[in-house]
Amino acid sequence: MIEARTLTARFGATTVVDAVSFSVAAGEAFGIVGESGSGKSTLLRVIAGLHEAWSGALLLEGAPQGRRRSHRGRVQMVFQDPYGSLHPRHTVDRALAEPLAIHHVGDAPGRIAAALHAVGLDAAHRFRYPHQLSGGQRQRVAIARALILEPALLLLDEPTAALDVSVQAEIIALLQRLRRERQLSYVLVSHNLAVVAQLCERVAVMREGRFIEELAVGDLRAGSAHDPYTLELLRASAGFRRAARRV
Amino acid sequence: MSRAAWAGQGWRAWLGSAAPNSRRQARLGEIYRFSRALMRHPLAAAGLAIVLLLVLIAALAPLLAPHAPSAQHLADRLRGPGAQHWLGTDELGRDILSRLLFGTRITLGIVALVTAIAAPIGLAIGCMAGYAGGWVDAALMRVTDVFLALPRLILALAFVAALGPGIENAVLAIALVAWPPYARIARAETLALRRSDFIAAALLAGASPGRIVARHIMPLCLASVIVRVSLDMAGVILIAAGLGFLGLGAQPPAPEWGAMIAAGRKYMLDQWWVAAMPGIAIAVVSLGFNLLGDGLRDVLDPKQR
Amino acid sequence: MTAPLLEVSDLVLRFGDTEAVRGVSFAMGRERLGIVGESGSGKSLTGRAILRLLPSGATLQATRLAFAGADLLAATEREMRALRGRRMALVLQDPRFSLNPLMSVGRQIAEAYRAHGRASMREARAQALAMLEAVRIREPQRVHDLYPHQISGGMGQRVMIAMMLAGDPDLLIADEPTSALDVTVRVQVLAVLDEQASRRDMGLILISHDLDLVASFCDRVLVMERGRIVESCAAAALDQAQHPYTRRLLASRPLLAAS
Predict the structure, then answer these.
(1) Domain count for chain A
(2) Neighbouring C-beta atoms of residue C213, cutoff 10 Å
(3) What mean pLDDT is reported for chain C?
(4) Any idea what the Cα angle at residue C240 is, between residues C238 and C241, rounded to 5°?
(5) DSSP 3-state assignment of B274?
C-alpha cells in the first residue's frame, strides 16, 4: 500500500522529517508514536499530499507520487481536532455530499444515509450544524466523510486525543470495526501508546524526525523494546509511581 | 389552545428543531436563531429598527409625504416648522419633511448600490489574494494599498470630476473607494482559515482551489465583511452627502440630503431648519447603521458562539 | 480536634438556569485528593469555586465552604485575595496561557513573593532562584532570565508550580497540570509536585480526566459526573469501585499491557 524511501520534509529551513523509510502492506494498520515535535504529523501530511516541501520517494499502491497531487479519494484523513475538521457553516449532509459531488458519484442521499449509519449516527444528525454536535459525534462525522469515497488508505492524526475517555473507547471500537469490515489500511499517528497498541499491528517510534525503532505491537505490549527512548516512553506510559511516603 | 396559537407554536418549534429534516429547515433554523440572538441586544435592535424604518419610508414615501417634493409654494418660503409644514420650508417653498422622506430613496439607493458593487469585489479580491499567496497576493494587495493610501472623499471627488456630476457617477466613485477595506478584511480571514483542517479535508476530497475559495472560505469571511459594511454605511452616506454638498452628486431638484444642506447653508443663522433637518436625518441614519453593525459583530463573532 | 483543612457542603454552581455543580460535599485534611471526571462533570468549576474564582454569570451557593475553619462564603473579596496565593494556590493546565508572556520567568516568581509582602527585591530574587532549584530546573540562573516562550512546556509547568508555592500555601489545587505535556515530561512534573507536596505537608487537590494518574498520585479519589460526586473512595480501592459510571470509566481506558 505504502512504500516510503528516505522521506525528508522541511518547514522553511528546519528539517522536520529526516530520511524516514518504511512500508505498509495493504490491509495493515501501522502506528507512528512520538512526542510533540517528533515530526509525526508532518509525515502524515506528506503521505496525504498536504505538505509539499518534501523529497525522497513515496509510492502509494505502487504508483510513485510527485510533489503536487491530484486527490482522487484513495487516501483520506481523519484529523485530531473535531472542532476544526468540519466546516462550521456546512450541515453534516452538506459535508458528506461534497466529496460525492466533486467526483460525480451518484445516489448521494443513499450513500450519505449509509455512511452515517456505518459510523453510528442517524437521520436526526443529518441536517445539524457542527456546533450542534458533541465532540464524539463530530469525530464520527469526520470518519464518515473520510470513508464516503471508499478509500483504500485512511490516515489518522491523533483521532481521539481531544475526546473524553469514554468517547475515546467508542471511537477506537468504531475504527477497529470499520477496518475489519472494509479491509482498510490505516496509518495512525499518536502520542498515546495504549491507543496505538489497540488499533495497530506494527508500530514505529519517532523522535526528532527519525524512526528510532520499529516493532510489532505484541513486543510493545510486552515491553521488549531495544532502544532506550522506546523503553522510556513505555515506562512513562505506565504511569506515575509515587515516592515513598515520609512518615 | 387557539388554532392561531398552536400554529405559531408549531412554526417556532419547526425552526428551533434539534433534528432538522432538510437543508432548508436547517438553514432557516440558523437564521431564526441568529435573529433571536440579535434581538437580545437592545442597541442592535434599535439600529435594525432605524434601518427598517428607512426602508419602509423609502417604499411608502408617496403615501407618507404631505406634499410633492418638488412642489414650490413661493408664498410660504423659509417658513419655520409649523402645522402646515411640520419641518418648515426651504428657500423655494418646498416642504422639507416631504423632501426628507423622498430623499430616503436616494440615500437607500446609494447605500444599496455601493454595497452591491463594492462588497463582492472586495470579498473576491481579498479571498483570492489570501488563498493564492505568492505574487498574486502581492499584486492584488499593492493595488489595494494604492486605493487605501488616498483619502476616500478626495478620491471620490477625483473620480466624479473625471466622470462628470450625477448620481450614477457618484455611486460608482464611492464604490471604487469603498472596496479596499473589505479586501483587506477578507484576506486576513482567509489567511487564518487556509490552514484549517476542514480545508485540508476538502483538498483531500479533490476540491479545486476555485471551489474551496467560493464555497468554503468566502462564506466564512462574509460575517466580518458584513460587519464592516454596516459600520461603513455611515461613511458612505457622509461621502454621498459631501459630494451632494459640492454639487457633484444628485443634481437639483433631487431631494438628496447633502445637496439640501448645501442649499441651506446660506440661511443657516436665521432659518436653521433648512440645513439642520437633513443634517439630523443623516445623523440618525448613520447612527442606525453603526448600532446595527456593532450588534452584528457581537452576534457573528465566532468566539461568542 | 482541629478543623479539616477544607470543608465543602452542598456546593451548587448555577449558570442562569443550568446547574453545573449540583450539591457537591466533601472534606479534606492535609492529604492528596483527586477529582476525576469527563468534560462537563464540573470538576474544574469545583476547584475554582473553592477559591471563589468563578466566571461571570455563575452563582455560587453552599451550606458550608470553609478553609481551615474560616468561612469562605462570608469572606469579602479583599479577604479572598489575601488567601489566594498565600494560603490557597491554583496551578493551571497550559503554561503558555497562564504565564505572563512579557515578563521573565524569574521575575514572575519573585513577584509572587513580593505580592504577599514577604520580601525585598533582592530577597525575592534569591528566593526565586531557590524555588527554581527546588522544582528541579537545571541552571536556575540562566532560566531565571528567560521568557515563557523560550522555555519548554514541562519547564513552564514547573515555573508555574514554583510561583504558586512562593506563598507557602496550605492547599494547592492543580487543574489538569500535566494534560498539555508529553508523556515523558509528565512524569518529571509529577515528581516535582510529589516532592513539594510531601515536603511542605500541604493539602493537594488534583483535578484530572485521567483516572490512572489520579489513582497513582492521590490518597483519595472523588469521581464526578454531570455536577455530582458519584464515587468517593481511597485511591488504592478504586479497582473495586461499585458505581456504574466509575466502572465504565475504568473499562474504557485503553490498556497497554497485554489483555
Answers:
(1) 1
(2) 21
(3) 88
(4) 65
(5) helix
At residue C1, does pLDDT exceed 70?
Answer: no
> What is the residue-wise DSSP string for C87-147?
TEEEE-S-HHHHS-TTS-HHHHHHHHHHHTT---HHHHHHHHHHHHHHTT-SSHHHHHT--
Q: How far is B23 from chain A (nearest CA, A)?
A: 6
Quick: pLDDT tens for B161-200. Answer: 888 888 888 899 899 989 999 999 999 999 999 989 999 9
Q: Is the pLDDT of residue B1 over 70?
A: no
- What is the mean predicted confidence (pLDDT) over B40-47? 85
**Nearest chain C CA: its distance from A229 CA (Å):** 10
Touch between chain C and chain B: 3 or more Cβ pairs under 8 Å: no
By CB atoms closer than 10 A (0-12, 13-18, 19+), residue C30 is middle
Chains that touch B (3 or more CB pairs under 8 A): A
Helices (H) and strands (E) in chain A, counts: 9, 10
Would an 8 Å CB–CB cutoff place A11 in contact with chain B? Answer: no
Mean pLDDT of B96-121: 91
* Bridge partner list, A215: A203
Residue C156 has pLDDT above 60, yes or no: yes
Task: Please indicate, yes or no, if residue C136 is contained in any of the structural domains.
Answer: yes
Pairing relation of β-strands C228-234 and C220-225? antiparallel
Q: Residue B78 burial (CB < 10 Å; 0-12/13-18/19+)?
A: middle
Residue A86's alpha-carbon distances to A135, A224, B6, B201, B279, in angstroms, are 11, 40, 37, 8, 48
CA distance C12 to C5: 20
What is the rounded average pLDDT of the residues B263-278?
86
A89 touches chain C (CB under 8 A): no
pLDDT at position B2, please? 56
Q: Are C219 and C234 in contact (CB under 8 A)?
A: yes
- For cell 488508505, the residue is A153
Q: Do A245 and C217 touch (CB under 8 A)?
A: no
Name, in order, each residue with C-beta under 8 angstroms of A146's C-beta and a sequence gap of 6 or more. Answer: A76, A77, A78, A154, B201
Residue ranges making up the domain that contains C46? 6-251
Report the candidate in B243, B236, B280, B277 with the shortest Cα–Cα distance to residue B258: B243
Q: Which amino acid is at C64?
A: R
> How many domains, in total, are found in chain C?
1
Q: Which domain holds residue A129?
A: 25-43+66-222+233-237
The shortest CB-CB distance from A233 to any of C38, C184, C253 is to C184
Partner residue opposite A87 with nearest CB, options B203, B216, B302? B216
CB-based contact (8 Å) between A218 and chain C?
A: yes
Which residue in A11, A98, A153 has the most chain B C-beta atoms within 10 A of its own C-beta, making it the best mutation to test that interface?
Answer: A98
**CATH code of the domain in which C222 resides:** 3.40.50.300
The chains found to touch C (3+ Cβ pairs under 8 angstroms) are A
C259 domain-assigned: no
Provide DSSP, A71-131. Answer: --SSEEEE-S-TTTSS-TTS-HHHHHHHHHHHTT-S-HHHHHHHHHHHTT--HHHHT--GG
**Is the pTM here over 0.90, yes or no?**
no
Mean pLDDT value across residues C45-72? 89
